[in-house]
Amino acid sequence: MTSKPDFDLECSNVSKTFGPVRAVDDVSFEIPSGSFFSILGPSGCGKTTLMRMIAGFENPTAGDIRIKGMSVLGTPPNRRNVKMVFQHLALFPMMNVYENIAYGLRCAGAGKAEIATKVKDVLERIALPDVGEREIHQLSGGQKQRIAIARCMVLDPDVLLLDEPLGALDLKLREAMKIELKLLQHQFNTTFVYITHDQSEALVMSDHVAVMNSGRFEQIGTPQQLYHKPASAFVAGFVGDANRWNGRVAEARDGRARVETSAGLTLTCTPGSGQTFRPGDAVEIFVRPEFIRTSARNGQDAANDGAGDDGLEGIVDSLLFNGANSRALVRPPQGEPIEADITLTGGPEDIRPGETVRLSWSPDQALCFAVGTAPR
Amino acid sequence: MTSKPDFDLECSNVSKTFGPVRAVDDVSFEIPSGSFFSILGPSGCGKTTLMRMIAGFENPTAGDIRIKGMSVLGTPPNRRNVKMVFQHLALFPMMNVYENIAYGLRCAGAGKAEIATKVKDVLERIALPDVGEREIHQLSGGQKQRIAIARCMVLDPDVLLLDEPLGALDLKLREAMKIELKLLQHQFNTTFVYITHDQSEALVMSDHVAVMNSGRFEQIGTPQQLYHKPASAFVAGFVGDANRWNGRVAEARDGRARVETSAGLTLTCTPGSGQTFRPGDAVEIFVRPEFIRTSARNGQDAANDGAGDDGLEGIVDSLLFNGANSRALVRPPQGEPIEADITLTGGPEDIRPGETVRLSWSPDQALCFAVGTAPR
Amino acid sequence: MNQADFKRLSLILLFMPFALWILLLIILPHIGMGVLALREKVGPRVYEFGFGNFIDFAMEPIYWNILFRTGSMSLLVTALALIAGFPIAYYIAKIAGRRSRGALFLVCLIPLWVSDLIRAFGWILLLRETGVVSSTLLWLGLVDAPVEMLYNDITVVIGLVYTVILFMIVPLVSTLDGMDNAMIEAGYNLGGNGWTVLRRIIVPYAMPGIISGCIIVFMLTAGSYLTPILLGGKNSSWFTETIYEQFITRYNWESGAAFGFLLLAFTSFVVWLGLKLSGQTLAGTVARN
Amino acid sequence: ETLRLLTWGSYAPEEVIKMFEEKYPDIDVEVTFSNNEEMIAKLRATGGAGFDLAQPSHDRVYAAQLEYDIYKPLDLSKIDTSVMQEKLLDGVKANTTIDGKVYSVPHQWGTSGLMADKSKAPDVSGWGDLCDPAYKGKTSMRLKRTILLGTAFSMGENPFEAYSDLDRYQKILDKVVDKLITCKDNIKAYWKGGDDLSALMLSGEVVASETWDSTAYKLYGENPNIVFVPPKTGALAWIDTFTLPRKGKADDAAYKWINFVLQPEIVKLMSASTGAIAAIKGGKDLMPEEKKAAINAAFTDADIANLQFFANIPPGVEDMEGKALEKIKAATGG
Amino acid sequence: MLDQEKNWGMLLGYRLYVLAFFIFLAAPLVAAGTFAFNDSLFPALPWQGFTFDWFFNDTEPKLGMFHDRRLLRGLYYSFIIATAVSGLSVFVGTCNAFLFTRREFPAKNFFYIMMIVPLVIPGVILGISILVFVSSIANGIEESYGIELEFMRPGILLVVLGQFSFITTITTLVIIARLKKFDGAMEEAALNLGASRARVLMTITLPFLRPAMIAAGIVAFLVSFENFNTTLFLVGSESPLTITMFDRMAKVGSTPVLNAVSFFLIVGSGLLALISILIQRDRSSE
Ligand SMILES: Nc1ncnc2c1ncn2[C@@H]1O[C@H](COP(=O)(O)OP(=O)(O)OP(=O)(O)O)[C@@H](O)[C@H]1O
Ligand SMILES: Nc1ncnc2c1ncn2[C@@H]1O[C@H](COP(=O)(O)OP(=O)(O)OP(=O)(O)O)[C@@H](O)[C@H]1O
Ligand SMILES: NCCCCNCCCN
Ligand SMILES: [Mg+2]
Ligand SMILES: [Mg+2]
């Protein structure tokens, strides 16, 4: 036997083509045991295809997939110890909860008593000890979710795959389940691979996130890394909200670049990781709304600006009040409105639509990338 | 003729019962011309029923509905100048976009040329000038949405009703449409009545929001009023996130109350509007995560607390990184974990799971209400 | 590799029953019938190849008449079934309450499961001169002599509508069921009155169901045998009866086969025409429910 | 072993079958009701298989056998022909002998003629009276060859003689068709089976009709005003036969059945059920009393002498008659 | 207000129409059933009194249906034929459903239409074409080899095949409708949980299809039981009930025993139809 593998799941140079479509394109990654790994990307980028290859429902066109260090390329889906939670859960409606969970154990040939113990056990672990005799349609959305997970976990898989399992739930429940899923993963201490196109899900739950675009991985990293140090324009645009300008580099020095935007603004920015520019290069600049300070112009004027901060004035187009996450749409002299996070307390100091305000941000927070991969 | 009415839509004491179910219970409100009015409430609270009465598909059991000052109780739905965007849009699949929009004009007996001009016009206003010949199924979700609105707006209604029109859209699109809807309303300058159970939709878009619960209106106000000055426990719990404790009043004076929570904490709070307490009263306390300050205990200790601030210590259970909206789950000595908004920069000053932190907030931000209406 | 083989093998296995069924019971028999139709009888046990049977048909106005009679009455029956059945289907799908809907549907179906024979038998008992209806009218004093309601074309039409209307209602209910009520409400909301909503929204939406129902009803009617025979009067010939006569009383299989072929061709042509005119397809209508 | 009978309705009464099965416990009788046309059609479809004993009328054996080869010759030694009335036996044999082989022997005979309710239609005496406007809307007939033949006779023609000259026969048919089309107005409905007719007559909806004699006798029992009327030109007489299908598998049982049902005590039961007269010596005496009375009320000896036996149908005639019937059916008379 | 009343009036009119329609539907069946209890030799008015003789009496002339050997035999053959037809057509229908919902193959659309076609071919023609085809083969074999293949002659087998030929379309459509609602992910989930393909079929897919298969079976049974047009040409000496009844009506003369049979069939089919609807409805609540 080889030494204990460090990774529950490894993919190396996996590709999959459907006729002319390259659904997954040379993807490599490895997932350390017991971690929560998310794959985040827009619809159609190949997430499901990748997951189906891991589960064995599709064969890769090229590349290798290893589970606990062993290649599973020749192994049929029912022999892989990788379990999957489907988007619409795919619970069996003709069986009750107990039978749903027992199904995999029965397939594995477990004895009656063993099945009963294990099912009872897993139901307790998901905090639903008494639902065994219920029919599936008698469960709430969140309960179904947990049963779908229990059905897999009772088989003690090496890896649990989850394909947008929250997609079908309603808003409030989705929020609650995000936290719950993370807790369940802690509890079972199994490697979770979680697919989503919702960046907030990926950021909130994961230890590591891979951002996928058109079949390729753009970046793998912790949520913080993705958010604060995006490796590409696509990641910068897809993870978190951002204001975005297109422009050309006017001057580049000291790790900064001055850019003339196509609308005519002049902005200073920091090249994204691994980017270097020469004057004339086409770039895209990203600034997150929460890094933009908004101040009433009649107030301290530019006093609020830090040293070397970029700033511009604009007229408040509208206010999007959303409690703690309120935002202002500010129309600068040129170009599209800029979104800036603000706090609205309902008091007289609140800014109002029609006012002229000053927006400012640190050039450190304005990342720029060469125009290449077209972000969505 | 009477003088020009101030309100596009008025409901007075409207009720509707279905057998034993009281779906809408004595609801009164009026909507100033040209404003964006939302009705926000949990599923089944009677929002759709109310809207269907306005549109004329149901007759109120009691009360009156006036449009532009005229009662419409006897007017059949096809004679009311109130148009409606349905939850699943109800575009006619057997007609193309042009015909869908032209339908209402045809019903009104408009001439061919007039129809063509108007349809062209409204398509331009929704920024889809070239889709006239498309079939409905060739449109994207957001485009369908806009066509559904155009189909109503082309008839120049007094009021446009929208019943959770974003419910069927996916996440990113829903975000984008929120802003777009608001812009469209500005553009048409028509009164919009918008139904939703998603508080962020209601807050972001509306001039005024009515919070509805079990058939009744709990509060009508601007988004800020609802968020910062909820009139009831239900509103406090339903609009925006909040930590919540149940407890009994130990002492009440100076517009403050000291409360012993059922888990054993002692907290100070400000009675919600119109509430007065005596010792022994059962109350619920609400504190929004963004009003909670989190500080590492080893740091300046309680120095961060303002005068008279409430504070307690807890262990960080987990961190939910979500860019600007990150949150910590902190387990206090007693009771459920508390959610507090934090900023995670990825730097060494970030708090980490397992650390002990101090949470503090101003009692002004801790609202309490007598236990009564059970919030969802 | 292995999986591809498995897929191909299972495809073949699945295809076999279908192929055998369609080939042996539909295609070959119809080809056989076509071949038989092209055999001309020239004497006892003497046949030769030719179009004689079709020429016989073409030369004999009686047959034309019967075929057109069958065709036009079938169209009439189809139209009546649609007009009479649509409100019922609409009621079941859209107006009846949740629970009564199932019951109504069931009541609708019961006659479907009882043979033509019994249905016709029932009508005879009701409509004959000395039957229940006539006696009742007499007893009520509404008429002063027994009335014969049997043995005429109207009875045949009523009997046929009765026999086939369920095949109209079932597809209509299933399409109308799939129609979002909001669509109708939207129709009103945008200013349409009952008639516009029906004409511009409900009917166009139900079109696949309407066409599907019409096709089935038309084919069933044109191919029906017992009802027109048992309820029909002295002038009522039905083309299936003519076919039957050719086969059974004149032992003339050859011309019977030719007639069968003509009936099939004629009805198929009508259906094809109907599909063309309404812009629908066979797969999109009959196949849907 | 099973004996599969292909026969006329009522030609195999339950009681008779029970008695037969008691006598031959190893034989099971299975009956299919049919008529002349269907018998031939069925046997044609099977090439003479599927049944062990058929009972076509004497005039329908010869041509069908020539055309379709569906019967097999009888082994007369296995049938007790001595009990049969010679005149009928010889007649049938003459009609059904091909290449010297006999295919049929007689079983029962009867007539087709008219039936009238004497109280309402006292004057009916000939085929043509069905078209008498006096009974407008109250007469009936079966749209089959019998009425063609009857009408031909009533118009002074002898269709049987014309069988040898089909052109001539066609001319007669054309005349008959015209007549029957004009007559359509007079008719309430064409009956299709004995049941139809009984109901029509008993209810009084119809007062005169073409009929099988047996049906008339049955109704006489219910209502003595309803009598069989042999037409002046002669009632048309038929003899239903015993004939073996070519691929029958139970010939012995078939012979047993033939001999069994020709026993006088069985004949009694049979005639009671069918209303037809057995083709055995003294067959008429074995009729039940009320039927005998009906016959006596209907027939004089002159009528019996006047019987017109159906002649063998030569090939081609069936087609001509078929078309004639179709013409009448399709014509819009009234 | 006026409008309200008009609406109410219209709705009432509508309801009355629906009621009238259901009376129209029921009338002939009620008539056919009721006369089963008339103590008369003819199924006609006048009413002669109430009796169960037409069900249970064991002597002529009022031989009840449960003592009428021919009717019972017809019932028996109908039952045999209907059972065979429903078994066979559900089996083939299930295969077809898998074929058309799960597989891709060339000219699928064309084959799909071919699958629908038997439903719209007049029954008489189906019967004739099969009769002609099979007979000519049997005749050919007899002529060339002198072998008589009795099963190719009109009889139960041909009746079964004839009915099967169009009933299979019905069962296929019923089962396809169900299979289309099947979430393919369910099979993948089962595979993923360790089940073999055969096990997935037996424990997931077929149980899911079962209600539709039962319903299709019942429909096939009833349609077969009542079929006349196709059967007429293919029947041999073993006549099913409809043919027996038709022969009785047209060739012997009907007594109320036919009404008794009708009554029996109406009630029996009603029950079966009820069961099939309940099964169908049961699953729609999922
Ligand atoms: N079986 C298939 N045959 C052909 N193309 C396919 C197949 N499955 C997927 N594709 C294509 O591969 C690409 C990736 O699809 P995939 O389902 O993996 O996307 P996804 O990231 O899961 O999207 P979503 O978020 O919408 O679920 C898409 O362009 C899709 O059209
Ligand atoms: N036609 C009806 N008959 C009986 N009860 C009804 C009817 N329509 C609505 N109700 C009941 O009235 C209450 C309010 O329903 P309504 O549809 O107005 O809720 P809603 O606020 O729109 O909910 P949702 O957000 O889920 O759409 C519910 O309890 C519902 O069950
Ligand atoms: N054309 C020949 C008629 C033979 C009739 N046999 C009748 C039997 C009726 N019970
Ligand atoms: Mg996917
Ligand atoms: Mg609603």
Automatic annotation (TrEMBL), chains A, B:
Coiled coil: none annotated. GO terms for cellular component: ATP-binding cassette (ABC) transporter complex. SUPFAM superfamilies: MOP-like (SSF50331), P-loop containing nucleoside triphosphate hydrolases (SSF52540). This is Spermidine/putrescine import ATP-binding protein PotA. InterPro entries: AAA+_ATPase, ABC_SmlMolc_Importer, ABC_transporter-like_ATP-bd, ABC_transporter-like_CS, Mo/tungstate-bd_C_term_dom, P-loop_NTPase, Transp-assoc_OB_typ2. It comes from the Bacteria. GO terms for biological process: quaternary ammonium group transport. Residues 9-239 form the ABC transporter domain. Keywords: ATP-binding, Hydrolase, Nucleotide-binding, Transport. Its EC number is 3.6.3.31. GO terms for molecular function: ATP binding; ATP hydrolysis activity; transmembrane transporter activity. The keyword Nucleotide-binding applies.
From TrEMBL, chain C:
InterPro entries: MetI-like (IPR000515), MetI-like_sf (IPR035906). CDD domains: TM_PBP2. It is found in: Cell membrane. The keyword Transmembrane helix applies. It is a multi-pass membrane protein. GO terms for cellular component: plasma membrane. Residues 67-274 form the ABC transmembrane type-1 domain. GO terms for biological process: transmembrane transport. Keywords: Cell membrane, Membrane, Transmembrane, Transmembrane helix, Transport. The chain crosses the membrane at residues 12-38, 73-92, 104-126, 154-173, 209-231, 251-275. It comes from the Bacteria. Belongs to the binding-protein-dependent transport system permease family. CysTW subfamily. This is Spermidine/putrescine transport system permease protein PotB. The gene is potB_4.
From TrEMBL, chain E:
It comes from the Bacteria. It is a multi-pass membrane protein. GO terms for biological process: transmembrane transport. Gene3D superfamilies: MetI-like. InterPro entries: Bact_Polyamine_Transport, MetI-like, MetI-like_sf. Keywords: Cell membrane, Membrane, Transmembrane, Transmembrane helix, Transport. The chain crosses the membrane at residues 12-37, 75-99, 111-135, 155-179, 200-225, 257-279. It holds the Pfam family BPD_transp_1. One of its GO terms (cellular component) is plasma membrane. SUPFAM superfamilies: MetI-like. Residues 75-276 form the ABC transmembrane type-1 domain. It is found in: Cell membrane. PANTHER family: PUTRESCINE TRANSPORT SYSTEM PERMEASE PROTEIN POTI (PTHR43848). Belongs to the binding-protein-dependent transport system permease family. CysTW subfamily. This is Inner membrane ABC transporter permease protein YdcV. It comes from Oceanibacterium hippocampi. The lineage of its organism: Bacteria, Pseudomonadati, Pseudomonadota, Alphaproteobacteria, Sneathiellales. The gene is ydcV_6.
